[in-house]
Amino acid sequence: MLLTRASDLCSPYPLLPYSKNPSSSPTKTLTRSMRTALKLLRTISTFPHSHHYHHRRRLLLRTLSLLHPPTPVTLSFSTTTPRRLSPFPALSTLPASSSTFVEQLAGEAEEPDDLDLSTNGDKERFDFDVCFGSVDARRFDVPSLEVKELEELPEQWRRSKLAWLCKELPVHKPATLIRILNAQRKWVRQEDMTYVAVHCMRIRENETGFRVYKWMVQQHWFRFDFALATKLADYMGKERKYSKCRELFDDVLNQGLVPSESTFHILTVAYLSSPAQGCLEEACSIFNRMIQLGGYRPRLSLHNSLFRALVSKPGGASKHYLKQAEFIFHNLVTSGLEVHKDIYGGLIWLHSYQDVADKERIASLRAEMQLAGIEETKEVLVSILRACSKEGDVEEAERTWIKLLSSGNSIPSQAFVHKMEVYARIGDPMRSLEIFREMQKQLASTSVVAFHKIIEVLCKAREIERAESLMEEFINSGLKPLMPSFIDLMDLYLNLDLHEKLELTFYQCLEKCRPNRTVYNLYLHSLVRVANLDKAEEMFDQMYRNVSIGVNARSCNTMLRGYISCEEYAKAEKIYELMCQKKYDIEPPLMEKIDYVLSLSKKVVKKPISLKFSKEQREILLGLLLGGLEIESDEGRRNHAICFYFREDCGTHYALRRHIHDQYHEWLAPFSKLTDDNDEIPCQFTTISHSYFGFYADQFWPKGQYVIPKLIHRWLSPRVLAYWYMYGGHRTSSGDILLNLKGSREGVDKIVKTLKTKSLDCRVKRKGRVFWIGFLGSNSTWFWKLIEPFVLDDLKDRLRAGHILDGMMENQNISFDCGSDSDEKTSFSNDDLS
């Protein structure tokens, strides 16, 4: 931003500062100001982390304000009338084209950047042509925004104060800015603050302009200004600040107006530019509303950018976006826009990843490609092979294979894997093995996926010797992960009652891989089947104590079956009590038997009761909510669902998510529950929508916005703090502990005071909309001693206070020794805007 202002200094027509001395030369004054500004700029660039940085930056901004004083402009009403929301948006009248005042004030309006969402070379992703993109010279119709000329104001004092505000506000922190604005309440009007906001946008201080606008909204004299909100939203979106842009976008909708085409476009691009969770879904929503609500025709570049984002994820994650991709394709065709070859290829790629491939749709897309004169690329042919593998279509697979061979390109390993699966579907595992050996000859290396697939095929065909030979070859190759193939082998041994081989494979798996619940369950099932209950009890206890493995309904049902078959009724009752406590379902064949067992001790089978949280579940949920957990509510706020999200690249979240999944398994939605075939915990899962969560939704998420509850001081138990730390906290490289928190200053102040009553001193740092509560030095040790009993065993070494491990945690770059948006110990200024 400073470089932008430096370039402004070199403008051929700079605005000259006013001088009180009429004999002074404007050229000399300008030269001195430019020389001062450039000197400050060089100092800031050379020493960006100097303690004089902020002071010199303020001097530079004031110098720039002298070089660019508020520009005189004319007051008139916009000739562009904003459109009201219409029940038939496609028939609504589009805004008329007109030049904008802000374009004169802030320079030509920038065109939105077309995204270049490049993908890596992973064959599980769709590979784009390097020329995939487009150029659309059509400009947006933007409503004009005009403000009064300072010289036309009759009051000299008003002109002076407005000029002073334009100079001072950009150089102050948010808290000080709000205090300055609050002090002007007695005299400012909407026209005055509109002028200040426009001036801030002119000098590219868009963040300051946004804060001025948000302050205006809270004043009693405020009247909604469509042109101002549109221009400010566009600038926020161009800086990729999608949350602020969305806030202004929603303000327009709440007034019953249709946002401008530029706002729709820029907000969609801003969402696409962010890797944050849920931004792609929001981009799709805005794009759809742009067409259905606004009646606009999006640019070709926006169609292509959104489509590329949909298929840039691995196939398993992208397959859910098929309907959205088809909508984009349909809109391209109906709008008469060019359909790039990668749009066809991407659609076929998405269809090939569906559980049931739509062969007719794939055939129609291929026919359209042929009519358009587009050749089928290697990626398209591999996608067709993948679709053939879903149903065992050998004839189409062989035709596609011939095309791959004749293309002259090297055949990817994924194509061999799909061809192996085609023959496995029709019950010809030996042909699949031949294809695997052929792949080894043609390619320099064998992929992990190919080993997984051929071992799975041979295990299902019960080809023991060949499967064992390939497994040994797989282990010797040094490739990983080995776990899926170990599970296939153990499942084969269990089905064939080869329990000794299963046991040897189990211990070999523990040596080579991280412990896995599926592997333990297979071994537990084998021990129960041979009636080795002592060893089974040992394994079950080991699973129960290790939170990273844990037990589930399958483990408990296996042990219950073993105890009942061996007439160990007392132990069967204990397992039954555990299943009732954990709310696990008992398998139907065991229900009659457990009824008989309980009748011997004159007990009755416990009937299912209404679900309720235990004390432990309540405290865990409170800690997760403080760490950023979200709750979604229906329109009437009668039913609510808890959305658990864990970062895939975070080691702490990897260990925590299995534990949380087990804790709330009875509340999870059907699609979030595990199956016997898949024991991998997803990074995101949700509960059923239920009224029981209403209390937590009202406390933490009233009106869909996160707040800190007023009664939070009553709930900060050691377990709550421990789960807050594990879910939303970090440990710095120096061993200090940081807790992440959103909400108001008053809520954070209440938490800090409560911690102080527990003899926990902390410091608070605000960074954007997030507060960081820091336990530094010896305070981190006291905090750790308080929560250590409730931290998961697998995470204690990772999270222990004062225990330094290189590269253990993410670098949060939070310093409590320098100024920022806010840095207080126990209290905050009420004048600041949260």
UniProtKB/TrEMBL annotation:
UniProt-annotated location(s): Plastid, Chloroplast
Example GO biological process: photosystem I assembly
Keywords for this protein: Chloroplast, mRNA processing, mRNA splicing, Plastid, Repeat, Transit peptide
Superkingdom in the source lineage: Eukaryota
SUPFAM superfamilies in the record: HCP-like (SSF81901), Homing endonucleases (SSF55608)
Domain Homing endonuclease LAGLIDADG residue range list: 618-783
InterPro entries (alphabetical): Chloro/Mito_RNA_Process, Homing_endonucl, LAGLIDADG_dom, PPR_rpt, TPR-like_helical_dom_sf
Pfam families: LAGLIDADG_2, PPR
UniProt GO cellular component terms: chloroplast
Name used for this protein in its record: Protein ORGANELLE TRANSCRIPT PROCESSING 51
